[in-house]
Design goal:
alpha+beta, Alpha-Beta Plaits, 5-stranded antiparallel sheet, 5 helices, disordered N terminus
């Protein structure tokens, strides 16, 4: 659950649902920092109250809910500025204010799920997860970026976002045969809603 540190809301509550699969650290670095900088520019005095993850089975991240407290006189300007983030946040994201919602976001998400139970012992013994992540990020190039990861009971996932999930998949698929930990892996276009 998110917490505002005990400070009461002073203005208009705004909730932004971002369809990005992020761990707590990346959530703070990407989402909280993004909205804090936006509010500092567009509405000094408005603030980020916090954010919370939306999780699925085995606590796999699904989305982020960011909670903002916006000065009433700046609400329209803040909403417009958030909607202008269309090209830097994932499709399916939405902003909610005063009971109304508006969708935004254009980035597409791609998950690469590594098999954590069915590879040979050699792959797990000699495979380097960080080196694998670095190689994937390099292979993505300008087609997208690695935003986060998740380690589940049977799979580890890397989450990429870019303008075109198909192009991202093509770029990453090229290096799959070269990396031991990617044997028996699978790609999945990340959904933009429940």
């Amino acid at each position: 659950m998110w917490s505002d540190g005990g400070m009461a809301e002073r203005g208009v509550p705004v909730t932004v649902r971002v369809w990005a699969r992020l761990q707590d650290e990346q959530r703070a670095e990407v989402i909280d920092a993004l909205f804090a900088a936006l509010l500092e520019t567009v509405s000094p005095g408005s603030r980020v109250l916090g954010s919370e993850p939306v999780v699925g089975v085995h606590r796999e991240p699904r989305a982020v809910l960011a909670h903002l407290d916006v000065l009433p006189e700046d609400a329209e300007r803040v909403v417009a500025a958030i909607l202008d983030l269309d090209g830097v946040l994932p499709a399916g994201s939405q902003i909610e204010i005063n009971g109304a919602t508006a969708p935004f976001g254009r980035l597409q998400g791609l998950g690469l799920y590594l098999n954590g139970t069915q590879l040979g012992e050699d792959a797990y013994a000699h495979g380097d997860l960080q080196a694998t992540a670095d190689a994937l990020a390099e292979a993505a190039g300008d087609a997208g970026a690695l935003w986060s990861h998740w380690m589940g009971p049977a799979e580890t996932a890397f989450y990429f976002y870019g303008p075109d999930a198909g192009e991202l998949c093509e770029r990453l698929a090229v290096i799959v045969p070269d990396l031991p930990l990617l044997q028996r892996s699978r790609f999945a276009v990340l959904p933009t809603h429940d």
